[in-house]
């Protein structure tokens, strides 16, 4: 089944440039046998949306320290972080608290 | 569903009812409502605990458009609008320093940023001042001298905090406390500048500013230069417009990073003023940091939940393939450590809280650093010895400099063999604290193209500094004040 997930990225310090300056992305994730959790979502973002310098957004399989993740306007720490299973129409927000660069 | 291994209980720990929206500190889930109360309360508690902002006082809020200073504006607005008993009682103004020249923004982008910021500032109703970083080129040398503390400021010779509050409330009752005592509806200060979107500085000024920044040999020195110019501009604005206090929006996270960064920069002696709640080095203008108890995460969530507007700008420019600044490295280090050890940043912060500023020493000018206005910390030690006993200076480290005769201050300033012209780089060194010396050298390429000290058999050796060399990339006010001293 198709998933329609709305991503809104808000970055500080010019990191929108990592995503062509676009703050809000609405995407439909393709069907795949593996479940769409945040872990896989990040992989997908890295492959399909990140235009440059992935290390400014990601570290290992997670987001870089200093980047907050909100799932449906709630702290991802409450939702299982990388293990959270995405549902249709879920809204994910990435907020950078890094001091530029 | 199986509960995910790393999830927290989803009910607010405070009220026990609401659905938790975020996790604060190491594992405290809060609902939106309780979080808002917690956030707003913390601001009042911070000001109440420190008791340095007097009723009716003019306070200048330094705003960057970033999340922390924007949240700070909101807290001031919240505080001023509360019912009479709990209301904040000072008179706020806003200042924004436009730094697009050194953030690689085109003129169009700078105009756009300015327009967005002006909208944001106007919406508050407080008087505001928009200034460009280029205006640092026009600062007077007096900004490098601490002003005389105002009579009665911070309860030194005037009424105590409690007395001041009580008499203020009484006065309000007499005046028939109809409205608020702060300008709730005034727009920008009449003298704040054109009411239309201010135009950008001329290209020549921008170029001159950029020269200073481009001359910096390291990203670290460049960052320090930016902070210095910005602070001086803000303090000067406060001084000119009669503000006795400046509020800076440094968050807990930023303060912890600054603590370790400044330690690495050699500012160990000044950590308390650099990161504490109050910073009184400028004398008549006191800098306070009311956001220093808020983590970057708390601020980001608050802004998101409660619609606090921000204006984001690109970071300070860096040169191609330049090593990162110490500031960036420390941030990366702390945030990275925080992932595995979630008390890291708060521990650094709390340790910093235990530092208290040294009581003010003799305020003789010869004992204050030219650039950061802190008391010189270069007596003896590795640097004192190096400049005193070896190198080009020669002479005994314990002798007094010729120009000073203050009996109260046995500051050992090495007497140089050569008498450098006032305009030579070397003449600056005795006027600078340890870390400002390092920054200064990186700003003016003291050591020439190569680098610092090549070691000979493991012993660092002074290479001949470019004693005579271009100093014109230093801002004019710095050179003027140095010459005067």
From TrEMBL, chain A:
From the Swiss-Prot or TrEMBL record, state where the protein is found: Cytoplasm
| Name of the protein in its database record | Ubiquitin-related modifier 1
Q: Which Pfam families match?
A: Urm1
Q: Which GO terms describe its cellular component?
A: cytoplasm
Any GO BP: tRNA thio-modification
Q: Which gene name belongs to this protein?
A: Urm1
List the SUPFAM superfamilies. Answer: MoaD/ThiS
Per UniProt, the keywords (alphabetical) are:
Cytoplasm, Isopeptide bond, tRNA processing, Ubl conjugation pathway
Question: InterPro entries recorded for this chain?
Answer: Beta-grasp_dom_sf, Mopterin_synth/thiamin_S_b, Urm1
Family that this chain belongs to? Belongs to the URM1 family.
State the pathway, as annotated in the record.
tRNA modification; 5-methoxycarbonylmethyl-2-thiouridine-tRNA biosynthesis
TrEMBL record, chain B:
Keywords tagged on the record: Cytoplasm, tRNA processing
**UniProt cross-references to HAMAP family, sorted A to Z:** CTU2 (MF_03054)
User: What PANTHER family does the record tag this protein with?
Assistant: CYTOPLASMIC TRNA 2-THIOLATION PROTEIN 2
**UniProt region (Disordered), positions on chain:** 170-204
Q: Which GO terms describe its molecular function?
A: sulfurtransferase activity; tRNA binding
**Official protein name in the record:** CTU2 protein
- Organism, by scientific name, is Callaeas wilsoni (North Island kokako)
A Pfam family of the record is CTU2
Do you know which Gene3D superfamilies this protein is assigned to? HUPs
One GO cellular component term: cytosol
Superkingdom: Eukaryota
Q: Which biological process terms from the Gene Ontology are attached to this UniProt entry? A: tRNA wobble position uridine thiolation
């Amino acid at each position: 089944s198709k998933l329609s997930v709305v991503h809104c990225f808000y970055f500080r310090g010019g990191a929108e440039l990592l995503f062509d300056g676009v703050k809000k992305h609405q995407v439909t994730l393709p069907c795949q046998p593996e479940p769409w959790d945040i872990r896989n979502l990040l992989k997908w973002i890295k492959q399909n949306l990140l235009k440059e310098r992935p290390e400014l957004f990601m570290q290992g399989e997670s987001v870089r320290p200093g980047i907050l993740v909100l799932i449906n306007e709630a702290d991802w720490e409450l939702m299982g972080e990388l293990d959270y299973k995405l549902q249709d129409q879920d809204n994910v927000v990435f907020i950078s608290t890094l001091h530029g660069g | 569903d199986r509960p995910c291994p790393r999830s927290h209980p989803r009910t607010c720990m405070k009220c026990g009812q609401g659905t938790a929206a975020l996790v604060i500190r190491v594992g405290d889930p809060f609902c939106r409502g309780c979080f808002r109360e917690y956030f707003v309360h913390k601001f009042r508690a911070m000001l109440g605990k420190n008791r340095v902002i007097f009723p009716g006082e003019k306070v200048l809020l330094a705003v960057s458009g970033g999340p922390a200073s924007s949240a700070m504006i909101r807290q001031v607005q919240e505080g001023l609008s509360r019912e009479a008993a709990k209301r904040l009682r000072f008179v706020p103004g806003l200042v924004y320093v436009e730094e697009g020249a050194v953030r690689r923004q085109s003129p169009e982008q700078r105009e756009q940023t300015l327009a967005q910021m002006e909208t944001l500032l106007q919406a508050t109703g407080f008087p505001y001042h928009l200034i460009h970083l280029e205006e640092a080129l026009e600062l007077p040398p007096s900004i490098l001298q601490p002003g005389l503390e105002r009579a009665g400021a911070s309860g030194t010779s005037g009424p105590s905090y409690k007395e001041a509050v009580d008499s203020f409330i009484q006065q309000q009752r007499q005046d028939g406390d109809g409205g608020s005592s702060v300008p709730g509806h005034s727009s920008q200060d009449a003298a704040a500048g054109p009411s239309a979107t201010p135009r950008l500085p001329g290209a020549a000024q921008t170029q001159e500013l950029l020269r200073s920044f481009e001359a910096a040999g390291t990203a670290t020195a460049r960052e320090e230069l930016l902070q210095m110019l910005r602070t001086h501009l803000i303090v000067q604005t406060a001084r000119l417009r009669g503000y006795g206090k400046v509020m800076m929006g440094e968050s807990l996270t930023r303060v912890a990073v600054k603590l370790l960064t400044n330690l690495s920069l050699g500012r160990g002696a000044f950590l308390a003023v650099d990161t504490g709640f109050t910073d009184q080095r400028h004398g008549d203008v006191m800098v306070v940091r009311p956001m220093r108890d808020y983590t970057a995460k708390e601020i980001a969530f608050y802004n998101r939940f409660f619609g606090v507007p921000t204006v984001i700008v690109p970071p300070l420019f860096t040169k191609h393939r330049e090593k990162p600044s110490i500031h960036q490295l420390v941030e990366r280090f702390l945030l990275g450590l925080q992932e595995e050890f979630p008390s890291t940043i708060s521990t650094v912060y709390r340790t910093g809280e235990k530092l208290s500023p040294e009581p003010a020493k003799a305020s003789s000018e010869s004992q204050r650093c030219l650039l950061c206005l802190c008391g010189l910390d270069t007596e003896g030690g590795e640097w004192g010895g190096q400049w005193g006993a070896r190198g080009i200076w020669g002479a005994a480290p314990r002798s007094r400099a010729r120009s000073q005769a203050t009996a109260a201050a046995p500051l050992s300033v090495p007497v140089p063999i050569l008498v450098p012209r006032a305009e030579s780089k070397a003449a600056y060194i005795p006027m600078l604290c340890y870390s400002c010396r390092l920054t200064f050298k990186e700003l003016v390429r003291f050591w020439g193209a190569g680098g610092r000290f090549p070691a000979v058999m493991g012993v660092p050796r002074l290479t001949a500094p470019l004693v005579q060399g271009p100093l014109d990339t230093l801002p004019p006010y710095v050179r003027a004040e140095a010459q005067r001293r």
